[in-house]
Amino acid sequence: MTLLLVLTMNAANGNAAFHNGGTGACDGCHGAPAGSGLSALQPGTSTSEICLRCHAAARPEDCQVATSPAPPRGVPPASLTPGGDFAYLTKQYYWSEVNGERAVSPGERHGHNIVAPAYGYFPDTTLTSSPGGTYPSYALSCVSCHDPHGNYRVIDGSGTITDSGNPVTDSGSYGATPSATDAVGSYRMLAGSGYGTKGTSHNFVYDPPIAVAPRDYNRGENSADTRVAYGKGSSEWCLNCHGGMSSGKGGAHLHPSGVALGDAMARTYNRYVKSGDLSGNESTAFTSLVPFQSGDLTDVRQLAAITTSHSGPKADDKVMCLTCHRAHASAFDAITRWNTKGTVLTVNGGYPGTDAVNQGSDPGAAGGKTRAEYRVAMYDRDPSHFARFQRSLCNKCHAKD
């Protein structure tokens, strides 16, 4: 059954809570769009198109994760949620390399290619199934990951997740705790073990992660990072569709995930400020451009406290898939949080850009973006946050620059 996913909004902040962590009003998804005279579930309407009725906007706020209509060339998408803006799927970036060869960063490489033709989103034409897995690209939609009925729930302080039991009375995304009689929804209503969608034979093996987000999460991060506190299961959940990329699968994955950083790497993360500067300390080391999993925490109260912390990792904290990738889409190939294909992230103290060709960098540094586009891709951070010639943020853990 196809339904609309609307993530919980905080009634205390003046927003109406639709799902409230679980199933919302049936008519909100099955009913007709206002004034259309049509059913929301009419034949030919894709699941994601129904979702985007509420999750797309020209000026995204709160839980809106797609700029719509997609912005024209030279104008960046506007949503700055931790997961990114799906409108990057429509952005094609072109440039000429130093050898004169034409280069391109196609939109379909910028994120999870949900199928929503009315919004300009189509199946991936290159990858017919999920990398490292078998989920078919033609079937990818919002409800491939999120359970629209919100059946998955946290039922105790140990982070036990089930798809039935005590009623869901609150969102599980912002630190609410279950009680002896009431459950809270899974983080972002993510689906768990046993979940499958119509039209595929794919079933999930892993339950959603335990995580907590701040309520103010769709914003620029020049003055402060938006910190999602990721707990137990953050990498494992991705393996529902990308199982072949597990660090336990040999050479299929180039980087470990779901494993502890250890003393040396945690110390490097905490000392690293920028290229050439290892004067930092744990209390101020965190950056949302390189987040990490907080051990195997399941206590949402502890995770909620972390959302306001600036501290870097300890030895038992973990690298995860989302350390390097965003969940929805980004301005860069492979949904990375920064440009992993460029030599530098800043050039002579500024961002690279097609409108700054005399800054001394190779043309590929900007990846076809203007300086303004590049800044938004870095979540509106001023380039002064980095070194004059900042190298890849892989160095936040590895310090090889």
Helices, strands, pairings?
Blueprint: H1 26-30, H2 47-55, E1 56-57, E2 66-67, E3 93-96, E4 102-105, E5 153-154, E6 161-162, E7 168-170, E8 183-185, E9 211-212, E10 229-230, H3 239-242, E11 259-260, H4 262-271, H5 300-306, E12 318-319, H6 371-377, H7 395-398
Sheet with most strands: strand arrangement: 6-5-8-7
SS summary, helix count? 7
Uncertain stretches of 5 or more adjacent residues = 1-16
Number of strands: 12
Distance between the termini: 51 Å
Q: Could you describe the largest sheet, including whether it forms a barrel? A: 4 strands, mixed
Strand percentage: 5-15%
Structural class: little secondary structure
Using only C-alpha atoms, the radius of gyration works out to 21 Å
- Give average pLDDT, whole number: 90
**Shape from CA axes?**
globular
Question: Secondary-structure element sequence?
Answer: HHEEEEEEEEEEHEHHEHH
Helical amount: 10-25%
Overall description:
With 401 residues, the protein is mostly loops. It has a domain at 229-398. It contains seven helices and twelve strands. The chain has helices spanning 26-30, 47-55, 239-242, 262-271, 300-306, 371-377, 395-398, and strands at 56-57, 66-67, 93-96, 102-105, 153-154, 161-162, 168-170, 183-185, 211-212, 229-230, 259-260, 318-319. The strands form five sheets. It has a four-stranded mixed β-sheet, with no helix packed on it. A two-stranded parallel ribbon has the order 1-2. It has a two-stranded antiparallel ribbon with strand order 3-4. A hairpin with a 6-residue loop joins strand 5 and strand 6 (161-162). The longest helix has 10 residues, at 262-271. It starts with 25 loop residues before the first helix and ends with a helix. Mean pLDDT is 90; it is low at 1-16.
